[in-house]
Amino acid sequence: MVIIFLLQDRDEQTKLEMKHRQEEDDLYRKFSKHREEENRRIREEIQDEWERELERLTNRFQQEMQIKKRRPDAEIGALTLRHQQERADLEKNMTLRRDKKKESLTRKMLEHERAATAALVEKQSHEMMELIQERRSEYMAESSLYLDGEEAPPYPARAPPPQPPLVSKFHIYTDPAEFSEVDKIAISVAQEDQKTFTDLVRQLVGRCATDVEKARTIFRWITVKNLNNIQFDDNLRGDSPLGLLRGIKHGTESYHVLFKRLCSYAGLHCVVIKGYSKSAGYQPGVRFEDNRFRNSWNAVYVAGAWRFVQCNWGARHLVNAKDAPKPGNRGKSDSLRYEYDDHYFLTDPREFIYEFYPLQPDWQLLKTPITLHDFEELPFVRSLFFRYGLYFSDPNTKAVMFTDSTGAATMRIAMPAHMQSSLIFHYNLKFYDTEGDGFDGVSLKRFVMQSVVGNVVSFRVHAPCSGAFLLDIFANAVTPREYLTGEPMKFKSVCKFKICCAELQTVMVPLPDCASGEWGPTKATRLFGLVPITHQEALVFAGRELEIQFRMSRPLADFMATLHKNGVDEKRLSKYVHQNVSDDIVSFYITFPEEGQYGLDIYTRERNGPTAIHQNGSTEKEKHLLTHCCKYLINSSKRN
C-alpha cells in the first residue's frame, strides 16, 4: 500500500494557492482585454464596410434618379422601393457577416484561452506537487520511513514515464460499493461551497487511506457536482465560493483540466492526454481526418501505475429528484441517488482504446500500441459492453463488416457465464446514410436473425439490397421475474456496426413477422425454465407436420402459439396450431397448409403469480399477462 501524505501546513498550501489565483486573475484580465479589443476591431471593420457599401448603393441610386427624373412617377416610385429593399438586404447581410465573424473569432479565442489556461494549470500543478513532495520527503526522513525495507514504497516524487499497468482494474477493486464511504464524502462535499481549492481537497481526501481513494473522491466530486448546469453570476469574483469554478463558466477550463488541478492539491501525479474519441455523432466507419472528434482525458498515477480517468463521460445526473439540492440544504440528500459511469474510473487500457486514441502512442498504455487505422477498425462499443463483461468471440470482428455474395454478414458477441441468465438483447437496423428503417414497406429488422447458442449471441444480417446499413445492438440485464411482469424494458446500446453490401446475387425475403428479439428455445430455458426436448436450434426443417416438445422445470400455465407466414393473414393460420400439456411436458402440433417459411411464436405465464390484497381484506393470486417465451423459424417442405 502506497504511503499517503497530506500537507500538514495548511497555510503554506493556501499561500501558494493565493499566488496561483493572482496569476489566474491576471490571465483572465488579459482574456477580457483581448476579447474587448477584438470585438471592437470587428465592429469597426463591419462599420467601415457598411459605410462603403451604403455609399456605393446611395451613389448608384442617385445616378439612376438623375436619369429617370423626367420619367413617370410610377417608375421613380419603383426605383425608390428597390433602393429601400437593397438597403434592407445590405443591412441584413452585414449583420449576418458580423455575427459569423464574431462566432469564428469567439471560437478561435476560446481555443487560445483554453490552451493558455491548460498551460497555466500545468505550471501551477507542477509547483503544488513540488511543494507537497518537498514536505513529504522531509516528513518521511524525520519519521525514518525509508529505513524499513518491508514498508510500502513511497509515492514517487517525480511523475514516472507512461508504462502499461502490471495489473488490471479488477485487482484494485471488483465492486464500486467498496468506495461507498468515500463516495458519500464526495457527495456531501459537493453539496457545500468552498472558497479555496485547499479547503475543497482537504475535505475530499482528508480521510482517504490510499492514493486510489484520493483519486476516487475527486472523480466522484466532479461527477456529482454537475458542473455544466451550475448557475454563475455575471460578475463572479475569484475569491467567491463559485469563483473556484470560473474556468467552467468561461469555458476555458474543462473537466480534465480541473481534475488535474485537484489531483495536484492532493499530491497525485496527473496528466492531460489529447487525442481522438468515438464521441457523440460518431458512427462506425468514420475516419478521423479532421478535428471533429478531438478530445482530452486524464491519466492519474495510483496503485503503482498510470490509470485512465474520463470525468466528463463518467458524469451522470440526479435521480429521484427534479432539482439538485441547494448549497447548505442537506435535508434533501437522503432521497437522492447520484448516477455515474464507473467504467471511466481507472479504465483498463485494453478497454479504453476502443473509445479513445491518444496522439502520443505511449499514452495508449498498451504493450503493443495500435495505429489510428487500427483504432478506426475496432468495433464501436459503449461502456455498457464492458460493464456486462461482453467480448467478441471472433477476433476478426471489425467496425465495418462486409456481406458475402448472398448479402449475409454475422456479428457474434460472447457473454460471461454469470450474465447468461439475465442478459436480454435487442437490435435495430436502418440505412447508414439516412434515417430510413424500411425496405419496400417492410421493417429492416425482419432482415436480421438474432439467436443464442451457449454463451454467444449472434446477429445474422441479410441485406435486402446493395448499400450500407447501420446495426445497433442493445442489451439489458433483467431477472426472469422482471421479464415476466410484462413491463416495458429499457435497452441501452452496447455496440454498433456498419454493414456494407457491395452487390447482391440473391433476392432476400424478410423473416416472418414474429415478435421481436432472439430466435430459438434458449430464451425459453433462460427465463421460463422450459427445456426443449425435440428441437434445440432456432432453425427447424420440417415436412407438412411438426411436433415441438418442452419439459417444464417449474409450473407454467396458459400456453399459446401463433403461426406466421409472409403474405398470409395470421388469423387464417390459427387453426393449424394446437398445444397440449401433460404432466410436465408441453407439446405444440403444427400442420402447414403449404410449403414455405413460417415463424412460430410461443407465449406463456407463471402459474403462481403475486398475491393481490383487496379492500375487503380478501386475497387472490394475480395473473400475469401472457409473455413471449420463444420463437422458431421453420422451413416446411414435402422433401423433409
From TrEMBL:
Keywords: Coiled coil
Entry annotated with the keyword Coiled coil: yes
Keyword Coiled coil assigned: yes
Coiled-coil residues: 40-67
UniProt domain Transglutaminase-like: residue ranges: 245-313
Highest taxon, organism lineage: Eukaryota
InterPro entries (UniProt xref): Ig-like_KY, Papain-like_cys_pep_sf, Transglut-like_Superfamily_Mod, Transglutaminase-like
Protein name as catalogued: Transglutaminase-like domain-containing protein
